[in-house]
UniProtKB/TrEMBL annotation, chain A:
Pathway: Carbohydrate biosynthesis; gluconeogenesis. This is L-serine deaminase. The keyword Metal-binding applies. It catalyses: L-serine = pyruvate + NH4(+).
UniProtKB/TrEMBL annotation, chain B:
Its EC number is 4.3.1.17. The keyword Methyltransferase does not apply. This is L-serine dehydratase. It comes from Fervidicella metallireducens AeB. It catalyses: L-serine = pyruvate + NH4(+). It comes from the Bacteria.
Amino acid sequence: MKNYSVFDILGPIMIGPSSSHTAGAARLGKVARGIAGEDFKAVTFYLHGSFAKTYKGHGTDRALVAGVLGMETYDERLRNALFIAKDMGIDIKFIETDLGDEHPNTVNIEFEKKDGSKISVQGASIGGGNIIINKIQGDSVEFTGTNPTLIIKKYDLKGSINTITSIIAESDINIGMMKVTRQGKGKEGLMILETDSKITDEIVEKIEKVDGVISVRAINPV
Amino acid sequence: MYNYGYEMLQLAKEKNVRLCDIVIENEVKLTEQSVEVVREKMGRNLDVMMDSAKYGLENDVKSVSGLIGGDAKKLEEYRKNGKTLCGDVIVKAMARALSCSEVNAAMGRIVAAPTAGSCGIMPAAIITAAEVLGADREKMIDALFTASGIGQIIGKNATFAGAEGGCQAECGAAAAMAAAGIVEMAGGTPEMALHAASIALKNILGLVCDPIAGLVEAPCAKRNSSGTVNAMTSAELALAGIKSIIPFDEMVETMYRVGKALPEELRETAMGGIAVTPTGIKLRKQIFGE
Ligand code: SF4
């Protein structure tokens, strides 16, 4: 039995109308922004399932855009997010699509950065405003974005996991969850770590230098 | 911690305090925050509730889809004309509930209580009862804690999700929570508060979730209005000393059991109930341009 805080019962304070289709969508956008960075000029949202069918009625479109602009679920500007994005010169597109066997409230968010590079983040709104990120650049991941998260792309080299976790431990940061996947022995894989405290640039730089590491992304929720 | 109504009641009796005191004490323990911080946080919920309960009375709100809106203001104007059947108190409460639901559907700010769909019942019942009783802000905050305690037990032993339990789980839970809150606000005993919650749940047992076009608008807004009246009349019965024959914990269990017995069409899928009436289907097609 879950121990509910009274604020799980009364709350969150949010912009309506739906915790899954509005509040959850805004959170998805915001976490995706944390992954993609802020220097983007265009965003395309690929909407799947219930998101594709009902996004207009629930304001899911405005909520997603509000999220990528960094707004919170209770920010009253959320309602005008489409106009705000336009004013900022950010190109926004919505495409209804079928992403396959995914949760009905799934969106794939593709950012086009100012330097022309692209990054895509896919996630689902799983109820009550809770979300899960399940793909980054097509790689399968799984984390909520509520805790600081490190996403490390690397080759499967002996000892590299150890080296990375020691770097984190040396910085006195506790690891709450860790998941490692690989495409095969010695091949490319992902390492996802959720920590209890903020992941600094210093840690990221140290991990980037570890043998076999291809890229490191830190997401610190605000 | 308490998992059931009878445990809450026991704690309140042992310590000779109200339910809200038990709930606050538990929250302080659970979150390791001070009483002041926890009350202040609940106060922020109250502020948003008051705003959302008022806005629609004065403004013509239109939902995003255009399906609902303007009814809170209409009802408030009707009330002001002085010729209501139910009297000022009930009609004002109904209008407040509509206001919250309209604000929600128009992408305004609300407090999920316990859900966004049922966000009008708690504010409407608590604010209106406080007006009648002359209860101040602190007493309203107390009532919100009482209500949350009832909500914690429903959440633990049943569900709040329309997709799982139908509308009885959303608007029913909200009404039960509000009923208990206003009983304590009116000086009723913890026992009376549980009776009120139990009666409120019984009144809407089996209520289905069947939103037109899948949107949290219709029938939701009107069910918030009737849910508020349910909360207030249930509180009234309990305050008069009338007991629920079925105890609260058994009612929660029953609500859950009945919810799971509902076919999927009647659990937020918009595939049953009023959603599939010819009018419901026509509206869906209009809204989504099918
Ligand atoms: S009908 Fe369904 S969506 Fe509407 S308030 Fe009830 S449970 Fe929520």
